[in-house]
Design brief:
Elements lengths: L1 H48 L11 H4 L8 E3 L10 H4 L10 E8 L6 H6 L11 H12 L4 E12 L2 E10 L1 E9 L6 H7 L7 E2 L4 H14 L6 E8 L3 E9 L5 E8 L6 H5 L11 H4 L6 H16 L7 E9 L5 E9 L5 E6 L8 H7 L10 H16 L7 E9 L4 E9 L5 E8 L6 H5 L12 H12 L10 E7 L4 E8 L5 E9 L8 H4 E12 L4 E10 L3 E9 L7 E14 L10 E16 L5 E14 L7 H6 L1 H14 L3 E13 L10 E16 L7 H9 L6 E15 L4 E14 L30 E4 L4 E4 L4 E12 L6 E13 L12 E2 L6 E10 L5 E8 L9 E6 L5
Helix pairs in contact: 1-5, 17-18
Length: 890
């Protein structure tokens, strides 16, 4: 109360003193001051006409720090149609007299520094005062959000200069925000919408804005009767914002009904809607949520459904919403007018010399005799745009003409096209590539500067750039067209880069049979990958895993554009270890295999194979085993013939040695992303010829080894061919549900009197082929009737296929789910003539299959988990298998 009386007293004194001083100035100094007075007064009137209804605040003459008689107040916030006032106030026939701003002074700010205010003022000392820029000044300073009111004063210095004084009235500083009664909306949820920590000041005029935000949060959670009261408490400088909330009952949709739906059941219509009835698990899919905007959208969904099934005049006449006042349960009823079904009697789409009407009609989804479909008309318009765009008419305007015949209930449709002129590309600009070199992106484009612009070329270029995998998979590559004229454009390719490198370090304990030994079980691993090294598109992959018994090393580097030419060059060196512990008929619990080698690859694109990459390969591999498998003594004692047969096979499969090989590959990958593909395909063919071997002896004191040495050394020599292909297409959205079909065929044949290493044979079953089966479970097996057990032998021929439906679990695709069907076979083992027919099983083609589901996790470590269920389970087999493997796409 004291503060109010003090303000009133000072205001009264200021007004009286200003009136007296103003009269004195008019009488004694009218010529020197009136022009600037007129400018500011008229600016003030103009701004006040369009003000934003902001409370006025009184400013003490002590705070202004100018002589009251010389204050000329401009007081408002907004005016969008202000002109320079100097011409209006100048006497007729006389040029306006400009006023130079000598200095800019900020007053009234207690907590906000002057610097941010000065930064928003569109004046600098020495510039000319104008009414338009003063309007902008007030708006800019007020938009900072710290002030109740902004006033501008002019203080004459001499005849042609003034000091510009900006007086601000600060809001109270927001010290604390309190909530009362909020049971279903947490303060954390509120802060996601409004971070009060970043709201420096507040007053009562700001409260409706925050109440509106809170009510929107409650409506999103179906609390439509919420009552929110807000109050600003505290002292004259610091404020406490207090929200008192009465949430009320939750409003839920319990019934969705329809009237007038004679041709479609309500059950069918409900499946189309965003608005759904509440059920037991409604909290998972938000069924039962009452959202008026969704109900309004559902009206158009129903109309579109009917109009896409022949009902040309179908309408949703009204939607009634009945809310039980006690339970807050909602019944929504859609009142439908179906009308009659119309069929298409005629379709016309005029062509030209480029493409005829007959050719266009053959490609359109709309046909004579079909039911009228609004959706197919939309599809036709988009298809025609694509067709004409492929000829360079990217601005073609398609206008459908729909002529109904109400007597015959038919409709005649014509699609008229205004082609415009062909468009050519002037410049192509790459925007957003901070790391990736321009040339890495440009070499993927099929559009050329100076060439004709077509929709096909734009789409193909976009897909090829996305396929690099360097950019965000959702919206990381986009075109922007900038017109230069009637037939010329500049293209901006806007990219959003993602991280392409990864460094991982792992320390583990376990992975050996004797986990009680720290020295045996301790292991350490390092992995460094980069798919866009130095931004030049070079792929680097290096990893190392070290333990007492294990040394896995890999270094691989490849450049698809060696020397900036379409030449693919790559070099690999590796030290790999494989562990085979699936055998039941040998003495050893496991067989450890070690591969040491290197590969050099060189190739180029082949125009004859539709730009596929052709590679020549040269490599050397050295294979060693900790020991050659020894048949169980039990089997040797009980069935020596079986034991000798199996030992002879193992001797040939698991011989140690080194060999050179040459090979050739052809592959093509036009998927839209290497890690998260949703469309496109890839295929690869590989051939490999082992041309030399120099094997080590593994003498043992047993009959089989003696026989092997007497017959001569085992030498490797074989030819191998693989064909692998996969195809992707989206089923829902672009990546919401993706179908992947994958197929594989392989064949390996030993040269005369030579052998094939165990690892080069096909062992069908497991996470990389047919899930639900063990590694090598599908294919030839050595069966011992004596022990009633069997072991895999490996196959010379293999075939399998996979069908997957993949969907994202997380929005960034770091976790995805999949359901799958797998099927295939492996058959025809080498050296089958050495095995008795009674001991050889599954050596002929036998198709096995399974279904299942899985999860793919990309971070922190790529992992693929699949659970497959056999569809043709045999008596001695498990019903299912769970597989853990490294993440990969087919």
């Amino acid at each position: 109360m004291v503060s109010s009386w003090r303000t009133f007293f000072y205001s009264t004194v200021l007004i009286v003193w200003s009136a007296i001083s103003f009269s004195f100035i008019i009488a004694n100094n009218q010529e020197s001051i009136s022009p600037i007075e007129d400018e500011i007064e008229q600016a003030a009137h103009s701004l006040e006409d369009n003000a934003a209804q902001i409370d006025e605040a009184n400013v003490d003459d002590e705070e202004i720090e100018v002589t009251p008689a010389e204050d000329y107040q401009l007081e408002s916030e907004e005016d969008n149609n202000v002109v320079d006032e100097q011409e209006e106030v100048a006497p007729a026939g006389q040029a306006p007299k400009p006023r130079i701003i000598k200095d800019i002074i900020i007053v009234g700010n207690k907590h906000i520094p002057s610097e941010p205010i000065l930064n928003r003022i569109p004046y600098q000392p020495g510039e000319i005062f104008t009414r338009q820029r003063t309007n902008k000044l007030i708006r800019n300073v007020y938009d900072l959000g710290y002030f109740r009111q902004v006033k501008v004063y002019a203080q004459p210095v001499n005849d042609d200069s003034i000091n510009l004084i900006v007086a601000v009235d600060e809001k109270r500083l927001l010290e604390e925000v309190k909530f009362q009664g909020n049971k279903h909306i947490s303060e954390k949820e509120v802060k996601k919408k409004v971070d009060f920590a970043k709201v420096p000041s507040i007053d009562e005029d700001d409260l409706p804005k925050y109440i509106k935000i809170l009510k929107k949060l409650y409506r999103d959670k179906d609390y439509h009767d919420v009552d929110i009261a807000a109050q600003v408490k505290g002292d004259c400088e610091k404020a406490i914002l207090h929200f008192a909330i009465k949430e009320g009952r939750r409003t839920l949709i319990k019934r969705v009904c329809f009237t007038g739906n004679d041709h479609f059941l309500g059950k069918k219509l409900r499946t189309l809607l965003f608005t759904r009835e509440d059920w037991v698990l409604g909290f998972l899919d938000r069924a039962g949520s009452y959202q008026p905007d969704a109900i309004e959208a559902d009206k158009f969904v129903i109309e579109n459904f009917y109009q896409s099934n022949g009902f040309l005049t179908a309408k949703v006449r009204d939607v009634s919403v009945d809310i039980d006042e006690r339970t807050k349960y909602v019944t929504v009823t859609f009142h439908i007018h179906e009308g009659e079904q119309y069929t298409i009697s005629d379709v016309r789409v005029p062509g030209n010399e480029v493409i005829s009407e007959e050719e266009l009609l053959a490609r359109l989804p709309v046909r004579v005799g079909q039911l009228y479909s609004k959706e197919k008309i939309r599809e036709t318009i988009e298809l025609l745009r694509v067709i004409w765009g492929s000829y360079g008419y990217i601005n073609a305007d398609i206008e459908p003409s729909i002529q109904p015949n109400d007597d015959e209930k038919t409709v005649s449709i014509a699609f008229y096209t205004e082609l415009g002129s062909k468009v050519y590309v002037n410049n192509i600009n790459i925007i957003g590539n901070c790391k990736t070199h321009d040339k890495v992106i440009r070499r993927m484009l099929v559009i050329e500067e100076g060439g004709l612009l077509t929709t096909h070329a734009m789409d193909e270029s976009k897909n090829r750039v996305e396929g690099l995998g360097y950019f965000d998979q959702r919206d990381g590559v986009n075109w922007r067209i900038n017109r230069n004229g009637k037939d010329s454009v500049d293209l901006d390719l806007i990219v959003k880069e993602v991280k392409t490198g990864k460094v991982e370090a792992q320390i583990g304990f376990g992975g050996t049979r004797d986990i009680s030994s720290p020295t045996e079980s301790f292991n350490i691993g390092v992995n460094v990958t980069e798919t866009n090294l130095f931004g030049r598109g070079i792929n680097l992959n290096s990893s190392a895993t070290l333990s007492k018994e294990e040394r896995n090393l890999l270094f691989s580097i490849s450049d698809p554009w060696l020397f900036d030419k379409p030449i693919h060059g790559a070099f690999d060196v590796y030290l790999k270890r494989s562990l085979y512990d699936e055998f039941k008929l040998i003495e050893q619990p496991e067989i450890k295999e070690r591969i040491t080698g290197g590969t050099a690859r060189l190739g180029a694109l082949s125009a004859k194979l539709n730009d596929a990459t052709i590679l020549g390969q040269l490599g050397v591999d050295g294979i060693t085993y900790n020991e050659t498998p020894i048949v169980k003594r039990e089997l040797l004692a009980m069935a020596p013939l079986e034991a000798v047969e199996l030992q002879a096979i193992f001797d040939r499969r698991f011989a140690s040695g080194a060999f050179l090989w040459v090979g050739g590959s052809a592959f093509k990958d036009v998927r839209n992303h290497p890690v998260h593909p949703s469309r496109g395909y890839q295929w690869a063919m590989h051939t490999k010829f082992s041309i030399h071997s120099n094997l080590k002896d593994n003498p043992r004191d047993n009959p089989a080894e003696v026989r092997r040495l007497e017959e001569g050394r085992v030498r490797f020599g074989y030819a191998k061919f693989n064909l692998d292909a996969s195809w992707y297409t989206p089923l829902i959205g672009e990546r919401d549900l993706v179908l992947c079909l994958h197929g594989y065929f392989g064949i390996v044949a030993p040269f005369k009197n030579r052998s094939v290493p165990f690892r080069e044979l096909y062992h069908v079953g497991g996470p990389a082929s047919i899930r639900g089966f063990l590694y090598g479970e599908i294919g030839p097996r050595f069966f011992s009737p004596t022990l009633n057990q069997s072991d895999m032998l490996g196959a010379k021929k293999a075939f399998w296929l996979n069908a997957e439906m993949i969907f994202p679990i997380s929005s960034d695709f770091s976790m995805k789910g999949a359901v799958f069907y797998d099927g295939g076979a492996g058959w025809d083992t080498p050296d089958s003539n050495l095995i008795s027919p009674a001991d050889l099983r599954n050596n002929s083609f036998s198709f096995r299959h399974s279904v299942g589901f899985g999860v793919r996790i990309l971070r922190p470590t790529p992992v693929k988990i699949d659970w497959g269920f056999k569809l043709d389970r045999k008596r001695d087999e498990t019903a299912s298998q769970v597989h853990f493997s490294m993440y990969h796409e087919f």
